[in-house]
Amino acid sequence: MKRSLFGRIWPGATAVVLFAGFVFPVYWMFATAFKPTGDIIADDPVWFPTNATLEHFQKAVDADHFWTLVLNSVTVTALSVVFSLVIALFAAFALTRMRFKGRRGLIVTFMLAQMAPWEVMIIAIYMIVRDNDMLDSLVPLTVFYTMMVLPLTILTLRGYVAAVPKELEESAMVDGCTRLQAFVKVIFPLLAPGLMATSLFGFITAWNEFPLVLILNKDAEKQTLPLWLSQFQTAFGDDWGATMAASSLFALPILILFIFLQRKAVSGLTDGAVKG
Amino acid sequence: MKRKLAAAIVIAGMMVSVSACGGDDGDDKNAGPDSFKGQTLTVWAMDGSTPDQWVKDVTAAFEKKTGAKLKFETQKWDGIQQKITTALSESNPPDVLEVGNTQTPAYAATGGLADLSDLKKEIGADWTPSVSQSSVYDGKQYAAPWYFTNRVVIYNKKIWAKAGIKDTPKTRDEFFKDLETIGKKTDAEPIYLPGQNWYFFDGLTIGQGADLVKKEGDKYVSNLGDPKVAKAMEIYKKYASYSKAPKDKDEATPQQAEVFAKGNTGAFIGMGWEAGTAVAANKAIEKDLGYFTIPGETPDKPEGVFLGGSNLAVAQGSEKQALAKEFLKIALSDQYEGQLAKLNGVIPNKKSLESNLKGNAVAEAAVPGSAVGGTTPLIPEWGAVENNPNPIKSYMTAVLNGKSPADAAKQVEDEINKRLAQQN
Amino acid sequence: MSVQTEGTDTAGEPAVRKARVPAPPRGDGRSPGAPSRRHAAAPYLLLLPALLATAVLLGWPLVKNGMLSFQNLNPRQLIQHLTEWNGVDNYQEVLSGDDFWRVVGRSVVFTAANVVLIMVLGTLVGLLLARLGKKMRLLLMVGLVLAWAMPVIAATTVYQWLFAQRFGVVNWVLDKLGWHSMADHNWLQTQFSTFAVVTLLIVWQSIPFVAINLYAATTTIPKELYEAASLDGAGAWKGFTSVTLPFLRPFLYATTFLEVIWVFKSFAQIFAMNQGGPDHLTETLPIYAYVEGVGNQHFGVGAAISFLTILVLLAITSYYLRMVLKQEEDEL
């Protein structure tokens, strides 16, 4: 009796504990951001920001060029995600649906490309960009971010393309569609959730990238948000209130995007893929 | 060092009760040639170095005299070395840049800085030798000394009064005795001194006349095993024995001023601007703040201090050399150099301008120390030694944890020598 | 800095890829070859943009990096645009010291410890998700997704704050729980505890990827397989080992491979936490390359280390890559 009660309760109880563990750091970030400085450095932690204040957010947003940096980050991130999705979709289609010489080698090539340690190559990249007079521009950032996410995007999309039953494509072609038409009309709609899910990875990578933009773009108006985020934590010692406010603002778009796309992705995958 | 020094000089500036320093309406009668018209001079100054009023006045004077535009770009401390190095390699570098005094020899050695020996002849005859010396490399002047600061003792008057201490100490032994008294008579921590306040330690070695490096053949090697260095470290250890601060942290983690601001610490050794940090954390501390010069062995000679500061350099790759020099002449003129000293509470590049610090309690406590101040070894190779993780900080922690200075020195000397031997 | 959050990839890939395995090849080989020879160039055309991008944007920096690794490149050379070849000096310098090999060993141990924790705990959480009721599952999902989605820079910053020596909430809790020596504990004081905090951060951020994908994959396991197993009298554990595990194997392999790469390449988490300190003791290969190259401004040496880093990573992953090569061969 007791045992079965325990048996019924433990999964839920574990879930609650795990939930708390996973959420707490995120919660603490937001909570700290809203607390007045006195509460942040109180001897006993203030668990809820009861005297909520927006001063830290104010400080974070008031930083020089904030809105320019937002625009830059959004531009670079969105463009590199779109570019990598388009390029990857072509490649993934070829790799899953066609038979040709060198296919295996290419798959392994992309796996290897996925391993590239970008942080340690930044001097090489810097010298290339410098010698081609492309410093202080969003273009090199966009193309290199595209490349950073491309391999995994290809490998991931391969799975989604493969999950679309070939019969669908074939029957469309029997109906007189060209292969391209079949792709656009039949396969692409089925791939949409997969594309969205895959794009998350690109968003995160490009949104977070730090060392490259630091070295390539010295012009304050050509930088991106990670540089802004780092500025509250250095010279004056740690201004935890402003740092957490900035972190919150920085994380928010990704959190929202994730919650939105993640549901689509999982349901799209479990229903869509299996149903098809 | 620079990051701390500079950063919140802004705050120090605020504390100096600025009376709007007017006088921007020029006494430059000779309006300069129009040949600079249409050009823009870019100046990189570090975060906190340039008060708004100063920027405004200098810009006005510069634009009036040359007809060119002036653009200040504020730089952050994080990753500044990499940024300056790469910037100097680019086709369009900043024309004038602020360089930390201890880093100047290294940049001079790269060939990235222009030779300013002519300028020194023209306007630098009365630059204080001890601060000008960091810009000299291979007999040439590669930068102009700009401003300097050094550490003082910042103390809590209330706690000292509670311990029954009437006067500030004039010698090191008196200071130790006072700390002892505070420890006995109050429940406050007598002094907050973390184990890795390396620039304070550097000051102690300067006070002992110790050298951190020595020449061996044509190479520099560590001199950390020198008994004079050990003596300095013993003094540091004695200070640290009055503190409960972590032995493996520097003064920025946590910000020592914020610890002090809680009102339960007798004193700490810091830069003037850190008083502002303390006040920002706890307004109530403001009325209890006091400052005095770090006392030395004898009353007539204060403790050695590390003279942190900045020079102004011109990029070799800049196409506006003449214009850049015009800027330096204006920025370093008695009027604006004096204004900067006054606004930021920093020590100017000439003795004659020190009168600008009158009435600024922090700066007045700092000036006596600056007379016996010094720097880290002025060799290009030194910069690498201070790179994180700084082996000298490891040395300090090791000694504080009970190792003998000689053993601790042995433990890190290989690393220091390795760094000193790196090619440039 | 972005690397680890790459772990926040997608729910899709492995699960879907898996999904097609049980339903055996439908096209029986006719369709992949597709219409005829006149389309023989098609796959190459489709792949052209990806290959071009890889060659230019990855190949070029790699080659450049390789060239730099044979040069004496310090601030002076960089600023004056000098090229000073110095043969294999950089490699000699790196390989002759014992620093490098110590860092290699540390990187391997660090990667192994993290990946094992991530895979084991991630799998357990994933199986728990499958067992939970709808409401509880949603709750846990939300928690996982929030942790997963935290941008790595923000997450690292938050962890520094949680574990801050003064005013950090972790120390406060430990103190209140009776462990008073932890009141002002400095987590970044020793190698082990710095790694412990970094590991907690990485594992916390990586479990969601494994768990959610694993859960998604389990939902595609046909019920009949379990029914068949239970007819054979298999218990829960047997069901797990005879049905769930074999079904998930390819997924687990692929995920482990990705986690190995991501953990090995972790940069922001370690560097931002303590710059590889105390005393260089938490430098893994990417950090070591960065500190020696960019930090100490010995760009040539840094380039040599990064090249060696790539070799080490290749060696570590070679087992899986060989497997993929073989497996893809079978599929064709």
Automatic annotation (TrEMBL), chain A:
Annotated Gene3D superfamilies: MetI-like (1.10.3720.10)
Cell compartments where the protein resides: Cell membrane
InterPro entries: BP-dep_ABC_trans_perm, MetI-like, MetI-like_sf
Topology class, membrane: Multi-pass membrane protein
Record keywords, A-Z: Cell membrane, Membrane, Transmembrane, Transmembrane helix, Transport
Pfam families: BPD_transp_1
Predominant location: membrane
Residue stretches making up the ABC transmembrane type-1 domain: 70-261
Similarity comment: family membership: Belongs to the binding-protein-dependent transport system permease family.
TM regions (residue ranges): 12-30, 74-95, 107-129, 141-161, 182-207, 240-261
Name of the protein in question: Carbohydrate ABC transporter permease
Organism: Streptomyces bangladeshensis
Record's keyword annotation contains Transmembrane: yes
TrEMBL record, chain B:
Entry keyword Transport: yes
SUPFAM superfamilies: Periplasmic binding protein-like II
Native source species: Streptomyces bangladeshensis
Taxonomic superkingdom: Bacteria
Stretch forming the signal peptide: 1-22
InterPro entries listed in its UniProt record: SBP
Originating gene: dasA
Family, as annotated: Belongs to the bacterial solute-binding protein 1 family.
Protein's UniProt name: N,N'-diacetylchitobiose ABC transporter substrate-binding protein DasA
Automatic annotation (TrEMBL), chain C:
Region (Disordered) location: 1-36
PROSITE patterns: ABC_TM1
Ranges where the ABC transmembrane type-1 domain occurs: 104-320
Signal peptide coordinates: none
Family membership: Belongs to the binding-protein-dependent transport system permease family.
Subcellular location, principal: membrane
Listed SUPFAM superfamilies: MetI-like
Classification lineage: Bacteria, Bacillati, Actinomycetota, Actinomycetes, Kitasatosporales
Species this chain originates from: Streptomyces bangladeshensis
Parts of the chain that traverse the membrane: 44-63, 108-129, 138-162, 192-216, 251-272, 299-321
Location of this chain's protein in the cell: Cell membrane
Name by which UniProt lists this protein: Sugar ABC transporter permease
